[in-house]
Amino acid sequence: MPSLQATLRHQAILTVIGERGQASVNDLSDRLGVSAVTIRQDLRDLEAERRLLRTRGGALALVDPGKEMPLEVSSKTHTAEKRAIAAAAAAHIRDGQTIIIDVGSTTSALAELLPGKRKNLTVITNGLTIALLLERHPEITVVVTGGTLRALQHALVAPLGNVLLQHVNADIAFIGCNGIDVRRGITNSNIAEAEIKQAMLAAARRTVVLADHSKIGVVSTAFVANPASVDRVITDEAADSKTVARLRETGLAIELVKRAMVDAVAD
């Protein structure tokens, strides 16, 4: 049970973030007259209650899971968790493989880790941000799916987004999502992106879903796949333990990134 002072701070923090959509640790520290250490703990507490989203150096107002965020915004949420999940995902990649990397903030974090660490990779992606990130690295061959541009995510989708994937046999597909639920499966906030995710899953021998803890137990608009139809989910230890246990009962392998690893990659 938080103290009265902590409860009042929490209310003040939520008011500021509710009005502005976001706030930095330094700003909240100045406004409330407490240390940055105290504010960071307040933000951790509020995030645990699912009342806001922590970012590097601050927090964002909580967004309805059915509402799509621009890539630039989602990349600022749960940054340390996404980096740690990306590092765990990179450990599954071997030199010389052909991999599919879906559009998204966690998958982009994975792409950032590849240059200089893996040789002779072929990366197939529908993410223009990912393609531009990798284009200057001769050890990586980049193949872009083609298709219709969705500016919000800088993603290529149907029509024509799935054609190339019908002719691909990749080693691993790394897919992002907006929700993973025991009954409703893996879901996404946009139908067109859900369709190309399905094509990516079909084009790979192994399939890995990258999803930070805020996606576990969430149901979004468009169905992507049943949990049992993917090989692995990589998430972080803050994921709801009951939901994780129920997902494992479906036969889904879930790899939990430990808190220490998240802390190690945090700024």
TrEMBL record:
Residues 6-61 form the HTH deoR-type domain. The keyword DNA-binding applies. It comes from the Bacteria. Keywords: DNA-binding, Repressor, Transcription, Transcription regulation. InterPro entries: Carb_Metab_HTH_regulators, DeoR-like_C, DeoR_HTH, NagB/RpiA_transferase-like, Tscrpt_reg_HTH_DeoR_CS, WH_DNA-bd_sf. SMART domains: DeoRC, HTH_DEOR. The keyword Endoplasmic reticulum does not apply. One of its GO terms (molecular function) is DNA binding. Gene3D superfamilies: 3.40.50.1360. This is Transcriptional regulator, DeoR family.
